[in-house]
Amino acid sequence: MAENQTLNRRVFDRRLFATAAVLFPLIVLAGFARTYYLKGFFEAPPLASVLVHLHGIVMTAWVALFITQVTLISANRIKTHQHLGLAAIGLAILIILIGFFTAVRAAKFGSASAPPGIPRLAFLLIPLTDMIMFAIFFSAAIFFRKKPAEHKRLMLLTAINFLPPAVARIPLPSLQAFGPLWFFGLPAFLALIGLIVDSRRNKRLNKMFLAGTLLLIVSFVVRLALMQTPAWMRIAEWLTTWAA
Length: 244
Fold this sequence. Notes:
By secondary structure, the protein is mostly helical. Helices cover 81% and strands 0% of the residues.
């Protein structure tokens, strides 16, 4: 009986992460096709700098890594998965560093992809928080790498954390009109659905998954509340003076 339950959990986990491995790249492609991946087919403005292109490369590499790791687990190639996971630490560091400087440069000089009506310095809090949350989730995933249940769900949260920029760029004006309710709401919804389905299917609540999901959703609310405060604007001004 216990063996059957363990087998059922493994089958469910593989289906859950296989679904994520399909949805993650599709949402990213839908959001960035016009301005990056397929920009040659659209009247998109040129990339602002080499730094922006590097940012696109490392983020694309992360999407590819996520898909590869899910595929390796499905094929039961655990050792390869583990070795690639350790190598991914270097990629994660690049994502954080390049993401930080790309965001700061956009806040200082402007960006064609910046949302209209929001001051550049105020908006800087959004991508910087993305980097902070990614660092938290990925560091925790590495720390819990010998606990598969926690490790896998934390890695899932790294993917969900990177969805808002893509969701915000999906060319659906009727949904874009909802602003943060759309581009933060969809990732929050996906995280909650994943948590609920995971808990019901496994008949237990993964506390790390719960904590990470709540932290991600709270971060959405906090950054919206703080982004135009005088305190943040002073920090943003200092960052653009020092780092850009």
